């Protein structure tokens, strides 16, 4: 569990486009520049992306559009144009390929690059600067980048000087940088896990560093090893250019077991938000919604429903999940965990392929 020696320090760059969808819309429509813009959520649903002008009012992606409108009455809603976002993303990907074949896309607007064996006499920082300049020249939108010796820190670094910024975390600074951050800023630690950690007195990276591996694995299972490592600035994950997303999922473990069906359906809302946010960021949709239920006695079941036409909205994901939950909810032990997964993925807006419904497909 120690970081590789200095003779093999990796050079990882995380590139993250700045308010990508909204920035593309502002690029293409001069009347939108300098104004608060939200992509998506025109009639109902959630915000897929928000411009920095909108973010100043507290508008964020995955926020219900009605709440976004209340926060920013002058908010301008724009219909998503996924074909345009995909085209711009492809331009960016071609720029990356000029520097390394080791590219791991996370979505249309962000990716990891491993430059370790592809520096050609330059520093990773210099290459990151070149990439950002070329993206702006080619696409008219800006990107932020983080440079470090592993994926975890590179992603943290890309958030430090947004928008249109560059931040470097060298090996000697990595552990100290992690210790100074609040837990909520850690990639891989969502709001529910952060709340559980805070309940144990873990509020910062320094607090996490003080916990033993045994303590973390006992309370967080297999993820405990990951948390133990990142508290020390350690992340051995490789950049995977062949990474293919097969499903998009989210789940939450509750402090108190759920025993009321209507309350449980409310708890499914944030999970549907998260799944749909990731789907829209990747310009994806899917045909199968799977519900995961873990009861208070740790028994676990899943129920799935496939639809003939790809899912069109966050509300549809939530409606299917709630319908699946009803018949399996009643249990004397209560419900400890709920999860939603969207699978059978395909590009949003793509021409639907002819498909014969299977025996177990349900409308």
TrEMBL record:
Listed cofactors: Mg(2+)
Annotated GO MF terms: damaged DNA binding; DNA-directed DNA polymerase activity; magnesium ion binding
GO biological process: DNA repair; DNA-templated DNA replication; error-prone translesion synthesis; SOS response
Active-site residues per Swiss-Prot or TrEMBL entry: 110
Residues binding Mg(2+), per UniProt: 16, 109
Keywords from the UniProt entry: Cytoplasm, DNA damage, DNA repair, DNA replication, DNA-binding, DNA-directed DNA polymerase, Magnesium, Metal-binding, Mutator protein, Nucleotidyltransferase, Transferase
Cofactor note: Binds 2 magnesium ions per subunit.
Reaction(s) catalysed by this chain's protein: DNA(n) + a 2'-deoxyribonucleoside 5'-triphosphate = DNA(n+1) + diphosphate
Site positions (Substrate discrimination): 21
Single GO cellular component term: cytosol
The UmuC domain, residue ranges: 12-190
The enzyme's E.C. designation: 2.7.7.7
One Pfam family of this chain: IMS_HHH
Localization per record: Cytoplasm
Oxidoreductase in keyword set: no
Role noted for this protein: Poorly processive, error-prone DNA polymerase involved in untargeted mutagenesis. Copies undamaged DNA at stalled replication forks, which arise in vivo from mismatched or misaligned primer ends. These misaligned primers can be extended by PolIV. Exhibits no 3'-5' exonuclease (proofreading) activity. May be involved in translesional synthesis, in conjunction with the beta clamp from PolIII.
UniProt subunit comment: Monomer.
Similarity section: Belongs to the DNA polymerase type-Y family.
NCBIfam families linked to this entry: PRK02406.1
Protein name per Swiss-Prot or TrEMBL: DNA polymerase IV
Organism: Paracoccus laeviglucosivorans
């Amino acid at each position: 569990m120690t970081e590789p020696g200095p003779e093999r320090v990796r050079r990882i760059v995380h590139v993250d486009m700045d308010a990508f969808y909204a920035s593309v819309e502002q690029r293409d429509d001069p009347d939108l520049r300098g104004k608060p813009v939200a992509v998506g959520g025109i009639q109902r649903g959630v915000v897929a992306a928000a411009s920095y002008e909108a973010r100043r009012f507290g508008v964020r992606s995955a926020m219900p559009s009605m709440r976004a409108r209340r926060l920013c009455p002058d908010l301008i809603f724009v219909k998503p144009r996924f074909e345009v976002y995909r085209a711009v993303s492809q331009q960016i990907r071609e720029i990356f390929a000029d520097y390394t074949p080791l590219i791991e896309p996370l979505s249309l607007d962000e990716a990891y690059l491993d430059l370790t064996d592809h520096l050609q006499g330059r520093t990773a920082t210099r290459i990151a600067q070149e990439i950002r300049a070329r993206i702006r020249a080619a696409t008219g939108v800006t990107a932020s980048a983080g440079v470090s010796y592993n994926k975890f820190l590179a992603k943290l670094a890309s958030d430090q000087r947004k928008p249109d910024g560059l931040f470097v975390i060298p090996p000697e600074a990595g552990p100290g940088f992690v210790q100074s951050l609040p837990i909520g800023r850690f990639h891989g630690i969502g709001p529910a896990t952060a709340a559980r950690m805070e309940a144990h007195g873990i509020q910062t990276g320094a607090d996490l560093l003080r916990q033993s591996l045994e303590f973390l694995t006992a309370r967080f299972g297999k993820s405990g090893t990951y948390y133990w490592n990142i508290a020390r600035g350690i992340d051995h994950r490789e950049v995977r250019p062949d990474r293919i997303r097969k499903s998009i999922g989210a789940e939450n473990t509750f402090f108190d077991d759920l025993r009321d069906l209507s309350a449980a359906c409310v708890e499914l809302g944030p999970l549907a938000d998260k799944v749909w946010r990731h789907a829209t960021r990747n310009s994806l949709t899917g045909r199968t919604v799977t519900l995961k239920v873990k009861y208070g006695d740790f028994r676990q079941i899943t129920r799935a429903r496939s639809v003939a036409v790809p899912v069109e909205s966050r509300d549809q994901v939530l409606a299917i999940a709630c319908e699946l939950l009803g018949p399996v909810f009643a249990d004397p032990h209560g419900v400890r965990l709920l999860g939603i997964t969207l699978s059978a993925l395909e590009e949003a807006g793509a021409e639907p392929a002819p498909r014969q419904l299977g025996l177990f497909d349900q409308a």
